[in-house]
Amino acid sequence: MTVPYGRDAGDTKGRRQAVLRIALLGRVTALARALALLSPLLGASAAAAASPDASPRTIRIMALGDSLTAGYGLPHADGFVAQMQAALDRAHGRALVLDAGVSGDTSAGGLARLDWALGDHPDAAIVELGANDGLRGLDPGQMQRNLVAILDQLQARHIPVLLSGMYAPPNLSADYGRAFRSVFDRLSERPGLLYDPFFLTGVAGDHALNQADGMHPLPAGVAIIVRRLLPLVLRLVAEARAGSR
């Protein structure tokens, strides 16, 4: 029996449509599988975009100071830098404290090595200098110029600063003590500066918290300093992180 031409053409067209439907179905299936594989990645990207601080970067804090920062007379683990690092870790501060403390340093010494210390690319800075200026009876006016130069350089690099103050030794004249202290009083008014009036608050003069020299803290004394400064250091970290966005 002869099959009419029109029916044969219709069958051919139907077969082609069926093949196209099968091919299209295969592509849709493949696309669905690909989307299923990509969905976790897409979800993570969306979450990161919605919450940019979900995994903030580590803030590098330069601790620029003298023997009080360097942990004179103490094992490294008991010094200021190590104890502050441990406190920040416990507080999930996501910060790294860089040790830029040198025993015996004056404000002039800190200024002289500032460029070298900045080679570690800090995001923030703690400045603790002046104790040795006072112990040597150096000119408070020159100390102020040195500290201003340090703060100016850090500000020019958009590095937020926590400045910790100091008092002159009590065995020096009252006039010297007032001139010395007035340097930190004036610097405390500097715009944008975080300020701690006295690094050794709660520790100075307490024999139970200081080494035999009466000037450098024991580990328990360092712990008091760190506990008191931690809220300010966390603010410093927050400022550095906000400025880096």
Characterization of this structure:
The protein has two domains: 1-49; 59-243, Rossmann fold, CATH 3.40.50. It is 54% helix and 11% strand. The protein contains nine helices and five strands, in the order αβααβααβααβαβα. It has helices at residues 5-50, 67-70, 80-90, 107-112, 114-118, 131-135, 140-156, 174-187, 219-243, and strands at residues 59-65, 95-101, 124-128, 161-164, 194-196. It has a five-stranded parallel beta sheet, with helices on both faces. α8 (174-187) links the parallel β4 and β5 (194-196). The chain is globular.
Chain-wise SSE layout:
Elements: H1 5-50, E1 59-65, H2 67-70, H3 80-90, E2 95-101, H4 107-112, H5 114-118, E3 124-128, H6 131-135, H7 140-156, E4 161-164, H8 174-187, E5 194-196, H9 219-243
Parallel strand pairs: 1-2, 1-3, 3-4, 4-5
Helix pairs in contact: 3-9, 7-8
Notable characteristics:
single chain, 245 residues, alpha/beta, Rossmann fold, 2 domains, five-stranded parallel beta sheet, 9 helices, 54% helix, globular, disordered N terminus
Distance between the termini: 82 Å
- Please tally the helical runs, counting DSSP H or I stretches of 4 or more residues: 9
Helix content: 40-55%
Oligomer: single chain
- Average pLDDT works out at 87
- What is the CATH domain class of the largest domain? Alpha Beta
Shape: globular
Task: List the strand order in the largest sheet.
Answer: 2-1-3-4-5
Number of strands: 5
Strand content: 5-15%
The chain-level structural class is alpha/beta
Query: How many strands, what sense, and barrel or not for the largest sheet?
Result: 5 strands, parallel
Spans of at least 5 consecutive residues with low confidence: 1-7, 44-53
How do the SSEs run, as a string of H and E?
HEHHEHHEHHEHEH
C-alpha Rg, in Å?
A: 32 Å
Q: Supply the CATH superfamily name of the largest domain.
A: SGNH hydrolase
CATH topology of the largest domain: Rossmann fold
The total number of structural domains is 2
Indicate the CATH architecture of the largest domain: 3-Layer(aba) Sandwich
